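Example (one chain per record):
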Amino acid sequence: MTMSDPIADMLTRIRNANAAKHDTVDVPASRTKLAIADILVNEGYIAKYDLSEDGAKKTMKLYLKYGADKNEKIISGLKRISKPGLRVYASAEDMPKVLGGLGVAIISTNQGVITDKQARKLNVGGEVLAFVW
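Predicted structure:
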């Protein structure tokens, strides 16, 4: 069975693992999901990720981060914005800010999958994939 929204599936797996205080979460891999995982690592929301390959099937293992004790979550929210049924686009001038700049918007542009801050710097617009805070 094919999945209609694999990015939403990835975000939901991270959200559920974070709520259950798991150390790792496995996600089927794709180029877009790898780019999103890179952004999450660079912005400090997850510790790292590993890529494993079983024949034709690639899987990412994401290592979640927590505060000093496991009760303090680094990722307090993940939200899918542009969905297959309703795509959401933003121009360079209308780029969204998440929690007044405290969070990160993940944008798919012609320059690749980047954050809202990078999109403003490059002066490009694109599809708003998700918000992370």
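Caption: The longest helix spans residues 6-19.
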